[in-house]
């Protein structure tokens, strides 16, 4: 009799465990759908606002095309005879336009987060039972959509104007650009956290991006120690040497983007440059989320 009762108790326990497991799975699924819904809500809102902002559309879409045309006209008489592999100056400078195009997410994401603080979107979304990380995820989703559009436009126009690519390495170059883009969003999050208005975030985000572009030598070649302290230098140089020059991961990075047979190399191989890009991106994301949580009432 006791054996029968014990067996019955064990069966009931197993049934309860099964029900509990199903309940947990259902709750997890609901939470996941809530995460998706919240992140997608933010992403859709960001995309709509961005499409309505003429200034952002100019700096993110039109300006890179204008820069490509300016570079092509500026270097049209330069046959690149003094550059390695017979490449042209325009091809050497093309990665700088890629860096600008993706790095502009620093400004656009800063404005996006600042707008969300100002119009009460963050407070509204926080009433939903989902973590704050979805605000960042929504921004990454919306910015990624535009980064992809921007890259396609820049690559098409660059190729049409005569820029050289190593097609086999282009997917890797695309991946590098996307990693850098996520880091740029993290930097924008930091800026938005420290400033009170979208106007201030817009101005400071653009100023920060432009300073990085000039100091790193991404717009115009520079050969000084300061370039190594900017993420833009590493992105441009790694992208340049892998996708334009055709170097391998073990080859050393050059200190300047105009590479001639006499150019000096650094002590860093290209694979180290990739690690440094990842380190910058990780640091910007981690700091951005931490500062954003402290500085907002979300």
Order of helices and strands: HHHHHHHHHEEH
Q: Give the overall pLDDT as a whole number.
A: 80
The structural class is mainly alpha
**Side-by-side strand order of the widest sheet:** 1-2
Report low-confidence residues grouped into runs of 5 or more.
19-35
Q: What percent of residues are in strands?
A: under 5%
Could you describe the 3D structure shown?
The protein has 298 residues and is mainly alpha-helical. Helices cover 73% and strands 3% of the residues. The chain has one domain (2-295). It has a two-stranded antiparallel ribbon with strand order 1-2. Helix 2 (54-74) packs antiparallel against helix 3 (89-103) and helix 3 packs across helix 9 (231-245).
Structural key phrases:
298 residues; mainly alpha
Provide a concise account of the structure shown.
The protein is an all-alpha fold and 298 residues long.
Secondary structure elements and pairings:
Layout: H1 2-52, H2 54-74, H3 89-103, H4 105-118, H5 121-125, H6 133-160, H7 170-194, H8 198-215, H9 231-245, E1 252-254, E2 265-269, H10 270-295
Antiparallel strand pairs: 1-2
Helix pairs in contact: 1-6, 2-3, 2-6, 3-6, 3-7, 3-9, 4-7, 4-8, 6-7, 7-9, 7-10, 9-10
